[in-house]
């Protein structure tokens, strides 16, 4: 319990630093985010992923943790989509965005400190990142490309081919660094210290920078402005913070026989809030991005009680 509180406390303090910085320096906040964004995307976050994968036992992760993460994400997304289409009577764009928002967790910048403090291992985080980067994200991006509304006057022939959309989702700096770190882990070779130490320094800078940027982005926002999406927001948040952790527990416990701290790690990862990447992806495809933004915000607020409940029940 103390580890979870410490992990969330670290996250909240750094987010608060970003929020206060944006409030005190409103004229510079946009410039700071614009400068930090590319640095994190192209340098520090890939370095972190490379570092995590290179230091992870891929046999254990790919054999158990990654399949659990994939099955859990599939179950949560399917449950949301069924409720969205059959009960809320939403179309494909709303159902697709809500499904991704209810099953795509913020493992990169929130999951890592929580896992390290609560579980003492980065294996659950790495498994989720592998599953999301290499499988879940390309699948949802393909769905977005299929059901995204086309601009007025656009021809079908002008649309980006599906294979190119999937390739673009995989061929980004984070995924490439993930594959590079996995290759290094499999080879058993470690670079010399003069190379490895700078990678560690850059990777360790990624999480605080990401959290600070998230805090800056929250300043001045007015969530829940689109009242018509309130049922979707409630349903997606319930699936994300209640159904997904239960699905993770069931899959890990009964399908893979996990117990103790390993089982707790899987459930805690499933109880994390929605990743901000969902908002980014949905915006790029002109999908209902407001839903993704609001689910990310609400799940970020409510994830602490969900994680604490998981620790009380399984810890």
TrEMBL record:
It is found in: Membrane. The keyword Nuclease does not apply. InterPro entries: Mem_transp_PIN-like (IPR004776). Pfam families: Mem_trans. Keywords: Cell membrane, Membrane, Transmembrane, Transmembrane helix, Transport. The chain crosses the membrane at residues 6-27, 39-62, 68-88, 95-119, 125-148, 201-220, 232-251, 263-283, 295-314. It is a multi-pass membrane protein. This is AEC family transporter. The lineage of its organism: Bacteria, Bacillati, Actinomycetota, Actinomycetes, Micrococcales.
């Amino acid at each position: 319990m103390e580890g979870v509180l410490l992990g969330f406390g670290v996250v909240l303090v750094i987010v608060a630093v970003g929020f206060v910085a944006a409030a005190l320096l409103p004229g510079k906040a946009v410039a700071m985010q614009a400068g930090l964004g590319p640095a994190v995307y192209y340098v520090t976050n890939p370095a972190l992923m490379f570092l995590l994968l290179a230091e992870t036992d891929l046999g254990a992760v790919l054999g158990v943790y990654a399949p659990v993460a994939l099955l859990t994400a599939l179950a949560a997304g399917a449950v949301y989509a069924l409720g969205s289409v059959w009960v809320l009577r939403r179309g494909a764009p709303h159902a697709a965005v809500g499904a991704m928002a209810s099953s795509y967790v913020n493992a990169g910048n929130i999951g890592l400190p929580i896992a390290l403090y609560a579980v003492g291992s980065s294996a659950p985080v790495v498994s989720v990142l592998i599953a999301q980067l290499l499988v879940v994200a390309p699948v949802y991006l393909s769905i977005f490309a299929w059901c995204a509304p086309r601009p007025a006057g656009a021809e079908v022939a002008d649309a980006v081919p599906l294979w190119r959309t999937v390739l673009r989702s995989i061929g980004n700096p984070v995924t490439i660094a993930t594959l590079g770190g996995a290759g290094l882990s499999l080879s058993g070779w470690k670079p010399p210290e003069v190379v490895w130490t700078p990678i560690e320094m850059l990777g360790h800078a990624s999480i605080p920078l990401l959290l600070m940027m998230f805090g800056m982005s929250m300043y001045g926002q007015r969530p829940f402005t689109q009242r018509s999406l309130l049922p979707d927001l409630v349903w997606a948040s319930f699936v994300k913070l209640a159904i997904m952790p239960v699905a993770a527990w069931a899959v890990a416990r009964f399908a893979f026989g996990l117990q103790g701290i390993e089982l707790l790690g899987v459930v805690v990862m499933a109880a994390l809030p929605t990743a901000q990447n969902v908002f980014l992806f949905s915006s790029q495809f002109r999908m209902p991005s407001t839903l993704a933004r609001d689910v990310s915000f609400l799940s970020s607020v409510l994830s602490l009680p969900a994680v604490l409940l998981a620790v009380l029940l399984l810890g």
